[in-house]
């Protein structure tokens, strides 16, 4: 399991396919992850076809991994299959609501991450795409997702064609709380973010973006309040439209 | 990685501690999981204290794992730490909304599942507790979670004191869709659920609950529409109350 500690996101891939047997083996492994009541409230859409990748790409703001990776996996919350089974068995399902949207998301994400761990163990490289929750409507259209199915994350997968350095993480004490949540004093924040802020690559990032602090690169450039508010409304509306 | 395919949930634990170094090592491994913009929008609360477990137990409907496991981990969406950092660096955060609730959930769940994989690799057993999203208000109180922190899942961890048989999964073709979502015909549903319905343990489960079908055990006993609707409203309200 040493590989888990060495892992890093891979965004450049060789032009080389992933054998169907290997992919299926990894997916089978992924579906051994814990799942609520053993209900498997998720589905995975596998995209290999170049045309289909082309349809998906705009939904991901044309991030190059979508068309360059041999395989793109869209992990979806799926209460459609389970509800269909219920109806066909004289049982009235009650899974078209927010609680099951969240529970289905948990289920789908545990499977997604197990897939990634297993794939990386086999030498594959992966990249998550957060754009999935920015443009869910475009993905729903491209992948023809019916009611009670919702795309929660996307993973691009392929054989690595780059070997980037590992990026930093916050110290353990920044993230772990003993017994109760210990809220952060200004001194805590300074101490816990000092290493991140000191890194040459992060300092350069601030300069490149003509900002005064690293935090401003996040709030003013990468993840703005305005965008988040628009996306929140869209996400909520599309969730409702999908029947939750 | 063979162990991933053999895994199963463990609900009975030996009365034996998990060394602090081992736990910290597993948590550090967990935090190597992919994380949005390298922001680590999560926190983990570690519960070892018997009194604190006693406070958490009712939130989990007194499932015995909470008090029996040496360690209980509550994985939380956390936009508090990041927002505090922003404010302290002359940056105006915009993470108090639904988009970041969902993104924080993705982040927290990838870390949770990486923890579980690493823990199982070391011989530990884990159990997820879905009750976290049924009673978030009780967990927020027990763990003193501030605004912009939300408990999304709980994992109990310990050295296994049982060795249950693996439970079934749907066939791969039930969950995987090539290129687009292929909706299920009644014949598909019959075929895909046939194995699950044929299992002696599942047939017994139907009889024990005096139901006509396995699906009815889910809809009428385990996960009812009425409960889900009440929990959906609560979950939404508590999410709002925590500032999202
Ligand atoms: C979101 C979620 C919630 C769960 N909630 C509980 C729970 O409250 N109690 C419990 O005993 N198991 C819980 N589990 C574990 C599942 O019951 C278990 O993963 C499933 O039955 C499959 O068994 P396996 O993990 O041994 O393959 C949960 C799992 C998930 C993913
Ligand atoms: C929810 C989520 C969304 C992400 N979205 C993107 C994305 O859209 N594009 C991208 O290149 N990387 C994306 N990533 C990958 C992160 O940028 C990456 O995990 C982080 O920078 C840490 O790097 P590492 O995984 O190499 O340790 C995402 C990761 C997560 C968990």
UniProtKB/TrEMBL annotation, chains A, B:
One GO MF term: oxidoreductase activity
Q: Which CDD domains match?
A: NfsA-like
What are the record keywords, sorted? Flavoprotein, FMN, NADP, Oxidoreductase
Q: What lineage is on file?
A: Bacteria, Pseudomonadati, Bacteroidota, Bacteroidia, Bacteroidales
Outline the extent of the Nitroreductase domain.
Answer: 4-159
Residues annotated as coiled-coil are none
State what protein this is by name. Answer: NADPH-dependent oxidoreductase
Q: Which PANTHER family match?
A: OXYGEN-INSENSITIVE NADPH NITROREDUCTASE (PTHR43425)
Q: Which InterPro entries match?
A: Flavin_OxRdtase_Frp, Nitroreductase, Nitroreductase-like
**Organism name:** Caecibacteroides pullorum
Query: Does the keyword field hold NADP?
Result: yes
Can you tell me which family this protein belongs to? Belongs to the flavin oxidoreductase frp family.
């Amino acid at each position: 399991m040493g590989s888990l500690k060495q892992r890093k996101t891979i965004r450049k891939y060789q032009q080389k396919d992933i054998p169907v047997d290997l992919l299926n083996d990894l997916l089978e492994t992924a579906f051994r992850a814990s799942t609520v009541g053993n209900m498997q409230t998720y589905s995975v859409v596998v995209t290999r076809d170049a045309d289909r990748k082309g349809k998906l790409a705009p939904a991901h703001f044309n991030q190059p991994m979508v068309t360059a990776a041999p395989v793109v996996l869209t992990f979806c919350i799926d209460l459609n299959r389970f509800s269909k089974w219920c109806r066909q068995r004289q049982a009235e399902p009650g899974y078209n609501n927010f609680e099951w949207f969240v529970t289905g998301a948990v289920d789908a994400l545990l499977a997604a991450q197990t897939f990634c761990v297993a794939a990386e163990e086999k030498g594959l490289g992966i990249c998550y795409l957060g754009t999935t929750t920015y443009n869910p409507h475009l993905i729903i259209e491209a992948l023809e997702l019916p009611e009670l199915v919702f795309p929660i994350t996307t993973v691009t997968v392929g054989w690595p064609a780059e070997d980037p350095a590992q990026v930093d993480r916050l110290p353990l004490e920044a993230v772990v709380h003993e017994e109760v949540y210990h809220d952060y004093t200004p001194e805590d924040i300074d101490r816990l973010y000092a290493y991140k802020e000191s890194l040459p690559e992060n300092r350069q990032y601030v300069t490149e973006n003509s900002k005064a602090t690293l935090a401003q690169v996040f709030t003013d450039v990468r993840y703005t309040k305005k965008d988040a508010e628009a996306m929140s409304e869209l996400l909520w509306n599309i969730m409702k439209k999908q029947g939750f």
